[in-house]
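Handout, section B. The chain below has 82 residues.
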Amino acid sequence: MAAKKEIFLKQFGEHVKQVRLKKGFTQFDLACLINKDRQSIQRLESGNINPTIYYLQELADGLDIDLKTLVNFEFTPKKKTK
């Protein structure tokens, strides 16, 4: 179960990174917009933190998108290999 969570957080982080890049923001730009440090954004994009719902709303606001758009990504859990 923990592996599935790790995969989910990494894929979500990659999704956030793609949205950020599409908006033309650096990690530092986004961090400044939402009053976080760049390392916080880096940890999120790397899948190393599990953000709170409020953090997600801050991200959505900083990226100028709605929360539904931010969390709308296709999660593809890796299948177990035998």
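Note. The radius of gyration is 13 Å. Compare this with the example in section A.
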